[in-house]
Amino acid sequence: MIAPFTVTPQVFEQHLGALREERYKCVTFSELLDSLAAHTISSRTAVITFDDGYKDFADNALPVLQAHDYPSTLYLTTGFLAGGKLHHKESGPSDLMLDWAQLPELVASGTEIGAHSHSHPQLDTLTAAQLHRETHLPKELLENVLGVRVRSFAYPHGYNGPRVQRFIKNAGYDSAAGVRNAFTHSSDDRFNVARLMLQSHHSLETFRNWLRGLEAPPATRGEAMRTKLWRDYRRGKAIVRRQPGSDYQ
Ligand SMILES: [Zn+2]
């Protein structure tokens, strides 16, 4: 199921080589937001992010990143991580996931750790109590283990909206990554920063074109009408599944 969202280490190496050839500087997600706020951003700045917390980040991606001396930001679904029985385990693809015990060394390697919810739901269909748990709990668990502030959140499936963003801000995150398949820019929404989702069908040529600002649009502010309609549809299905009198708000 995740095959469309994977590339081989050899292809990843080609991508990082292209970033270097095009003279890109790579920073973490929070560093990008900090330099945007300070107006010190260079136009050739890229952020490499990974969602979910699969084990092959440490086995395959990190060695290639380190060879290029590029940092990245890793968004973890805390309920899916292996080990750490005290960490409110959810059922998930645990055999493929990173282990809690590996996280300190990832931080030491320069990887920024962000949160990607606790159980990977469609956040914009949840009740207030569920939404509170999915945004607050991963931050608390990660900060307890890492001893550093977890500043950024990535929306599972990219789904968010004004209500979800309120919970993100309230939990203490200062940025959030969406999907949107567009280029982010200085006036992008810091609680729904656009990302380009690299998939296995993308050619190296497409990747190189992205680095030249081609083959994807700049991010627009606000939600498209079809995004709102699609959320209403998914939320309608979620409410039908819930008991009457739930605390959806
Ligand atoms: Zn995800």
From TrEMBL:
Residue runs in coiled coils: none
Domain NodB homology positions: 44-249
Name of the molecule in the record: Polysaccharide deacetylase family protein
Family annotation (Pfam families): Polysacc_deac_1
Keywords: Signal
InterPro entries: Glyco_hydro/deAcase_b/a-brl, NODB_dom, Polysacch_Deacetylase
SUPFAM superfamilies named in the record: Glycoside hydrolase/deacetylase
Main subcellular localisation: secreted
Top-level division of the source organism's lineage: Bacteria
Keyword Signal listed: yes
Taxonomic source organism: Kocuria aegyptia
Localization: Secreted
